[in-house]
Design a protein that fits this description.
The protein is of the alpha+beta class and 743 residues long. The chain contains twelve helices and 43 strands. The protein folds into five domains: 147 residues, Jelly Rolls, CATH 2.60.120; 81 residues, Immunoglobulins (Immunoglobulin-like, Sandwich); 283 residues, TIM Barrel, CATH 3.20.20; 72 residues, Immunoglobulins (Immunoglobulin-like, Sandwich), CATH 2.60.40.10; 89 residues. Helix 6 packs parallel to helix 7. The protein starts with a strand and ends in an 8-residue tail after the last helix.
Length: 743
Amino acid sequence: MRQRILWNHKWAFTKMADSAPVTLPGKWDFVNIPHTWNGIDGQDGGSDYYRGTCWYAKGLSRKDLPEADRYYLEFEGTAATAVLYVNGEKIAAHEGGYSTWRADITDFLKEENVIAVAVDNSPSDSVYPQNADFTFYGGMYRNVSILAVSASHFDLDYLGGSGAQITPVPGEDGSAMVRVQTWIREPAGQLRILIEDAEGNIAAEKTVAAAQEICEEIRLEKAHLWNGIEDPYLYTARLQLLPDVDEISVRFGVRSYRIDPEKGFFLNGRSYPLHGVARHQDRWEKGNALSKEDQIEDMDLICEMGANTIRLAHYQHNQFFYDLCDERGMIVWAEIPYISIHMPGGRENTISQLKELITQNYNHPSIVVWGLSNEITMGGITEDLMENHRILNDLAHKMDPTRPTVMAYIGSCGSKEDIVYLPDVISYNLYLGWYEGATEETGPILDRIHKDHPDQALGLSEYGADCLDWHTGNPRKGDYTEEYQALYHETMIRQIQERPYLWATHVWNMFNFGADQREEGGGKGQNTKGLVSIDRKYKKDSFYAYKAWLSKDPFVHIGGKRYVDRIGEKTLVKVYSNQPAVELFVNGRSVGVNDRDNLFFSFEIPNEGVSELKAVAGSCVDTACIRHVEKENPAYIMKDPGIILNWFDITADDVHFSLNDTIKDIFTSPEAKDAVYELLASALPDRNDPNPGGMFNLLKTLTVLRLANAQASGRFGKKMILKKEDLLALNEKLNKIRKPDAE
């Protein structure tokens, strides 16, 4: 029978080797798996984390292995490419940092062996991802196992899959037909199929002769449906090769769903609106080398917020986390890391990563869509890009006819571009109110896209605003305060509520995550749009805004707990709760009861001395403290080495241009355009290019100041920190240029 040996302990590790060792190295360091070499330098900013080849090595004695016919090494995640050596001989390689892969090492084993793996996260022109707003951590960062099996076994050689696919189809009479497909190496004897319910009772069974490929259907009477977060009921298919040859267990859920362009998502025949978050897989000073406990905590936080859907971006996540999604009833968008910039040499890698994603995750009832790419039109749309997507779309439908395909489009991608019509359902990443425009513009833009695509369901795949530990009583776009992030999400929630046609909405992001190239808002090395800090120790106020909307567990939370010192004679206190009314007490005295007004409660109170606050909502109580100060606490004001000026430091009027005007508006005046090009040419497309590409569609919505400040991180073109006096000089020039439409 099959045996699995977890093989994580004490691997030798180095960055310095040039070739595979044939004896166990004596001078290398020792690490335990999961492991990444970028846990620190991938999150500290500077875009200088180590990207190269590192080596792992471990001794293996044949006498320590259980008796078996074949031995496989299984790697659940090696980022980004890996080459496996046994006793110095190359026996296997894998390209792609997020999926499981295996190698049969049986014929290469001696009595004493050295297993070595060269893992490489160097820049590449053929392996995705290469251009994206997150750190590409290197390492052997998920479990490594030895699988010992008989000669006859469920297939371990095809794309890291289990060797079985389960397809349940619920019937109108309450039963379900369960199609069981298996692939067997050197088949012999019989295959027994046992369907067990969640309590371990046998609900159905069937025995057939073993064959290389088997497809059988079993009727499941009175099928218990997998019903999302309310009742995520799971069955287990136990597949046995008899007599006592091999056995695997595959969990599955019986459910049906559809995605309606006008009415959104339906689960098991009933409307089931999807609202949740996107998740990256990293943590503070751990990178992507997570423990099971880390992943359980992530899921607990997502569930506490009340989400019922997760976009697992932008790559295949750990099988353990997909299992958690099944167990907790999450509706999942799973995708490959075909992201940002199309690489002509990367087509085969997109195909192999999609094949692995579908093969390894087919049985998860939580997954409802296969994601083909994310913001891929950022560098423009070519015929090669289109052909790549047509191939992926057809491949997904061929491998899995039961699930639709989806793409996430950057906001600058026109809704009438051919590529938007390609997948079954679509979603847009829109950051109105942060990178460009006003938050209130999001809804009307979604309405326009929806009108352009009446036959395709539309979702909101990313939206968000960065915040750090800065605070203000007057929040404004771009200030990186916790108060603005909360205000932004309150506004977004109201707009989403008004649009039931949205098939799913996903906040970007549930957690702050590593993005080593970022240096903005006073922080380094992180994307700070998370509702929770990267170390999971602090839930931002925006987290509680969503909890008030989505969670059914009674709670109350006073906002602004970190905003203690406040100026002015009066101050605004926000309270988040899902209860029908909230009463606020200041120093023991009630200042009133507010009824639920579209989820959020606000109280304007006198700001005098020290105020002890207590919010009461039913049986729920929360407390906080604020105090009056004469001047703004400097600890609350953003300190960003990349920010030379703030918008409010700039001289501007309604008639003349300034740094506060958008690139789009600046380009309406040849004189203003020339002035901006003098300073920001490296961030802008060639001024003579008639087709500057999709990225320019984003750039043109930024103000000149925003674009100049973004250059400190090199996000648009060459990294460059401009001098304050240069920007003020440019603003003075623009102040002398009259706007064409000025009265």
